[in-house]
From TrEMBL:
GO terms for cellular component: cytoplasm. Pfam families: AhpC-TSA. One of its GO terms (biological process) is cellular response to oxidative stress. InterPro entries: AhpC/TSA, Peroxiredoxin_BCP/PrxQ, Thioredoxin-like_sf, Thioredoxin_domain. Residues 4-164 form the Thioredoxin domain. SUPFAM superfamilies: Thioredoxin-like. This is thioredoxin-dependent peroxiredoxin. Thiol-specific peroxidase that catalyzes the reduction of hydrogen peroxide and organic hydroperoxides to water and alcohols, respectively. Plays a role in cell protection against oxidative stress by detoxifying peroxides and as sensor of hydrogen peroxide-mediated signaling events.
Amino acid sequence: MNRLQLGDLAPSFSLPRAEGGDYSLQQDLSERPGWRFVIFFRGSWCPVCNEELQEIQDSLSYFEGKDIHFTFLSTDNQQDLNEMKEKHGLTSPILADATEDILKQYGVYHHGEDALYEDHGIHGEPAYYLLDEEGKVMYQQQQTSPFGRPHAKELRKIAAYIRKNLK
């Protein structure tokens, strides 16, 4: 499993969007300049994830006003992700990493069959990466359960702190 360090260029990827079509991180960075939160979440079946994505959706105008965009990834299937996206009116890209390749490239914790406890089967756990306009990692946090993740208010603070203290 890889372990990204601050300042590393984040792995680029291309994945299917929940609603169909493909998404490319490199293309998105060039088309929507600014910073990017790349957030891995457990899946459409996770109530904590649904609440978090809705909270971020409700705060999007703040983030977009600061040129900060979001891209969400899950190992969940594309159809379920699309249903979740439509149900909650989510507008940020939501991507299906069914092969878990990107999860592994980013070093996200994988709750597999060998996990110590049962927790809704096989899935990736929450992880957060804030990338600068070039795709370099400025912040990261990984979870091994659904709890303890930063919410929208904390993500605001994190981005503001980093922007204020950039060298």
